[in-house]
Design goal:
single chain, 95 residues, mainly alpha, 6 helices, globular
C-alpha cells in the first residue's frame, strides 16, 4: 500500500518520501534474505521505481539495489508460473 501511495503521488514533496521508501525496501532485502515473497515483491517495486524516475534509479543502483534484484531473479523457481511470467518484466538493466 505504501508503495502505491508514494509511486502514484506526483507532488514535489513526495520525492524525499520515495527516496526513503527505496532505502527501506533495500534494507528489507538485505535483512530478510530468506523471505522469498518479500524479496520478489521488493525486486518488482525497485524495478517500477527505476522505470518511473531516473533519480530513483540512480539511488537504487548506488545502494546496490541492482545487485539485489539480479540475485532475486537468479533464484527463479520453475514451479511458480506466476513468478516466471513476472520475471520477464523486472529489471534494472533495460533503461
Amino acid at each position: 500500500m505504501l508503495f502505491t501511495l508514494f509511486w502514484r503521488n506526483e507532488s514535489s514533496g513526495m520525492t524525499a518520501h520515495r527516496s526513503r521508501l527505496v532505502r527501506c525496501i533495500i534494507s528489507a532485502m538485505v535483512k530478510f534474505t530468506v523471505e522469498t515473497s518479500l524479496q520478489r515483491t521488493c525486486a518488482a517495486m525497485l524495478s517500477d521505481f527505476a522505470r518511473s524516475d531516473p533519480a530513483l534509479k540512480s539511488l537504487i543502483v548506488s545502494l546496490e539495489g541492482k545487485k539485489l534484484v539480479r540475485a532475486v531473479l537468479a533464484h527463479n523457481e520453475e514451479d511458480d508460473p506466476e513468478w516466471t511470467a513476472l520475471v520477464a518484466h523486472i529489471s534494472l538493466d533495460d533503461y
